[in-house]
Specification:
single chain; 275 residues; alpha+beta; de novo design (two linked rop proteins); Glutaredoxin; 4-stranded mixed beta sheet; two-stranded antiparallel sheet; elongated
Length: 275
């Protein structure tokens, strides 16, 4: 196969990889905000997208990793398009962008190892990036040092950094924390208990809604390796996902809700006043 045709096929394959990557990342982003067990790639307790996608490893400084993945694939598609126009310096940028993606894979694999679970959709993303690495090596690149490439890419890098900074600022914008002591005390007085896991990102989000008032919430740790774990109790209570809110009175379950709730939803569900 002549080099020209080989390069063209590599470009087509990379475009397909980029499009599939954006779609899968978008699906994972959607899955990050739905209840565990609500996505089609939840097979069992060990092979589950939502288990991994709702863990603490699914966010990086409060930013969903799936959103960062979508951003990575969008930039990837832009660089592939630029490389298709015989822009060799973009091919160099693409090469190092894919290498950055390989490092990101290491982070996600570590997360799956810590959770002792596999996310099929995440694995597909990993494979897409790995395959793209070998395809990118086919494209013609200028043989220049990395330092020179960085110097020639200052504008490109600056735009990337500004976009990334905007994403992180959006998800970490400081806000005033209101006092929710009355709501927290009312929920506990009404028999509400929050079953959570220290590896669950939605549990962390739920706790952050209460702020300092969290100390008045009755909380039970369900992960076997978590601090003060009551794993056996969680099994007895049939807790299959976290966070799960349960109201019990006189040893009898009155109601339960699986998943993250806003304070407004909690006040209505727990028959409490938000103020």
């Amino acid at each position: 196969m002549n080099p020209e045709k080989k390069n063209k096929l590599a470009i087509y394959a990379l475009i397909i990889i980029g499009i599939v990557g954006v779609l899968v990342s978008g699906y994972l982003l959607y899955g990050h905000y739905v209840e565990e067990g609500s996505t089609i790639c939840d097979i069992n307790s060990k092979i589950s997208c939502s288990l991994v996608n709702s863990s603490i490893f699914s966010e990086l400084f409060n930013v969903p990793v799936a959103l960062l993945g979508m951003f990575w694939f969008l930039v990837f598609l832009y660089l592939v398009w630029k490389s298709a126009t015989k822009d060799n310096i973009s091919a160099n940028r693409l090469y190092y962008w894919v290498i950055l993606g390989l490092f990101f894979i290491i982070y996600m694999i570590y997360g799956e190892y810590a959770l002792k679970a596999i996310c099929p959709a995440c694995t597909l993303v990993h494979l897409l990036i790995i395959v793209s690495f070998f395809l990118v090596r086919i494209l013609p690149r200028n043989k220049i040092q990395l330092a020179v490439l960085i110097k020639d890419s200052i504008k490109f890098i600056s735009i990337l950094l500004l976009l990334v900074a905007a994403i992180f600022l959006f998800f970490n914008y400081p806000h005033l924390q209101e006092n929710h002591d009355n709501l927290a005390k009312c929920l506990t007085n009404n028999g509400a208990v929050m079953y959570s896991s220290y590896l669950c990102s939605h549990c962390q989000d739920q706790k952050e809604l209460f702020g300092d008032s969290l100390k008045f919430i009755a909380e039970i740790e369900c992960h076997p390796d978590g601090p003060n774990s009551q794993y056996q109790l969680c099994i007895e209570k049939n807790i299959t996902a976290t966070p799960t809110w349960v109201i019990e009175r006189n040893g009898q379950e009155i109601k339960r809700n699986v998943g993250l709730m806003s304070l407004e939803e909690l006040s209505s569900w727990g028959e409490c006043s938000l103020g």
